[in-house]
Amino acid sequence: MEAVIFENVNKVFARGEVAAEDVSFRIRKGEFVFVIGRSGAGKSTLLRLMSAQESATSGRIWINGQELEKIQGKEMPYFRRQIGVMQSDLGLLEDRTLFDNVYLPVIATEQQGRKGRRRVEGLLRAMGILDRARFYPREVSMGEAARALLARAMVTGPSILIADEPTANLDPDASWDVMCLLAELNRQGVTVVVASHNQELVSIMRRRVITLSAGRLVADEKNAVYNVRAADAMEERRVLHEREHRKQNGTLSDQSDSRDSQSG
Q1: Which of 215-219, 249-253, 257-261 has the lowest average pLDDT?
Q2: Fold held by 1-82+159-232
Q3: How far apart are alpha carbons 21 and 9 in whole angstroms?
């Protein structure tokens, strides 16, 4: 069964920026997938669409068999428990210990108590930072902070983990440690989707790689290394040129949905 289905998904922001153009793919349950591309290629937007932090302008998205467009507002918090999100703009709170940071989603989902605290301790142990549980973010290394973010993303027991540049600003050793933890979670059955610009790690891992260029899916390869098209400025120009040509011929709409964010 598929964990994620994108069917002809488009995302156009209010100012006309195309972040996703006619994107279609499927991710099976238990798969590990990298999403790569140049800065601005649409990687983060793709993940935010997947986690329902953004709404598609058109097209259809299913997560674990649920079509996102049909999920009612009151059902969304329960839906989001299926997805763990690790991204830079959802960082650790500086006035709370690592333990308390990881415990926050437990409180938000009303699962607090002895069982919830044991789960936090178990995850911190699995991440190798249980001895840092009472430390504050400023007192630990960036690698340890990244592990705490990963623990927080997993504390509610999601079946899908979405990680947006999880190794950004980490040294090579810390980056490899985080990638090994992601691989271990995947071995335990978690579906893992990672946006990354780290060419070496992507190539070493040899997983499925989806390549974006200017919002368009230009490659989808299994057991792959980092696709050079992800960094190819000429490929990006080709996609943008074709988009402009279709717009001039009236075959591409540049109108955004009223639900779209203003920020991109």
Answers
A1: 257-261
A2: Rossmann fold (3.40.50)
A3: 7
